[in-house]
Specification:
single chain, 351 residues, alpha+beta, Hypothetical Oxidoreductase Yiak, Chain: A, domain 1, Ribosomal Protein S8, Chain: A, domain 1, 2 domains, seven-stranded mixed β-sheet, three-stranded antiparallel β-sheet, globular
């Protein structure tokens, strides 16, 4: 299997052209493409251009509103709720991040929730936008399909419900940035395994009898396992309440599986929080203390066989450097899907 490497600029232009060809306004297409490529550059391969065919199909059958009228349902100095009008999730979350940053700069904290959005890619993308503004970011989301059962159960009533947290480090240093699903593996990784014709490791999924499920093409027959057993289940539930129930978005049995239904309105709920350290111990103090702690961790004693101790965000920073230089990896299966997108949009193939 030969993997192609295509420049970030070429991938960005291709995504823009696909969305434009499908009827999305050019400015929106450019913004969505930029956010998707940010995800790919950081190594989030299951949430960037990999998702383009899925988005294109939803657009083609009317499952995404290309001309949304997003509006604030609630707007207070430090908190607000945005109705996404079934827009591309990237557009909804970009706007939420902008508003959260504005509020945090003015009042110390900005909490923005949304309803009637869609899948928006990796949470690190939006937490990262907050960090770029010199603020601390927290992102919470209800996943776009239920793949987790409550601890001890078999009915999938919860999703991967990711959380991302970013802390700026100042200067040219990348932020400390944690981005994780509340399941052992994000569902995007299951989809990638299916596309590549590979098996999943034991410990990702179980069937309804509690036995290991390793065939990704049978994923609908099982559930993803939570991280940390009951602790991951509890975290997933709390995120569903904060990013879904509190925003008037779909949760539990009301959640639409956007992998199985390309037309229904998903009403995806997400939340982004921006915190201004200037209103607490001070920005300079945060940068100094964070830098010192990270340095101590990196330089701490290692176990035998361990070459380095990393902190959250190191992998993304290394991936960004490498992929900006060498290009974004595109597997043969993904290449075929991208060229299907090109045909749908009436544009030239990517390669």
């Amino acid at each position: 299997m030969v993997t192609n490497y295509i420049s970030a600029e070429r991938v960005r232009t291709f995504i823009t052209d696909v969305f434009s060809g499908l009827g999305m306004p050019k400015e929106d297409a450019i913004l969505c493409a930029d956010l998707m490529v940010r995800t790919d550059l950081s190594g989030g391969d299951g949430h960037g251009v990999f998702r383009l065919l899925q988005y294109a199909r939803r657009i083609q059958v009317g499952g995404i509103n290309l001309h949304p009228q997003m509006k604030l349902l609630q707007d207070a100095p430090s908190i607000g709720l945005l109705h996404g009008d079934n827009a591309m999730g990237h557009l909804v979350m970009q706007r939420c991040a902008e508003l959260a940053i504005e509020k945090a700069k003015a009042t110390g904290i900005g909490w923005m929730g949304c309803c009637y959005g869609n899948h928006a890619g990796a949470g690190s993308t939006y937490a990262g936008l907050v960090a770029e503004a010199g603020l601390v970011g927290i992102y919470l989301a209800v996943g776009s399909a239920n793949h987790m059962a409550p601890w001890g159960g078999i009915d999938p009533l919860l999703s991967t419900n990711p959380i991302a947290i970013s802390v700026p480090m100042g200067g040219n240093q990348p932020p400390v940035l944690l981005d994780m699903a509340t399941t052992v593996a994000a569902y995007g990784k299951v989809k990638m395994k299916a596309q590549a014709g590979e098996s999943m490791p034991e410990g990702w999924m179980i069937d309804q009898k509690g036995q290991a499920l390793t065939d990704p093409k049978r994923s609908a027959e099982g559930t993803l396992l939570p991280i940390g057993d009951y602790k991951g289940y509890g975290l997933s539930l709390m995120i569903a309440l904060l990013a879904g129930s509190m925003n008037g978005a779909a949760v539990g049995s009301e959640l639409i599986d956007f992998n199985a239904d390309e037309k229904a309105v998903t009403n995806t709920g997400q939340t982004i929080v921006a915190i201004n350290p200037a209103f607490l111990g001070g920005t300079e103090n945060l940068l100094r203390s964070s830098g010192k702690l990270v340095e101590e961790i990196r330089n701490s004693q290692k176990l035998p066989g361990v070459s380095e101790i990393r902190v959250p965000g190191d992998g993304a920073a290394k991936a960004k450097e490498k992929r900006n230089r060498d290009g974004i990896p595109i597997s043969p299966g993904l290449l075929n899907n991208l060229n299907l997108c090109a045909k749908m949009a009436g544009i030239a193939p990517i390669q």
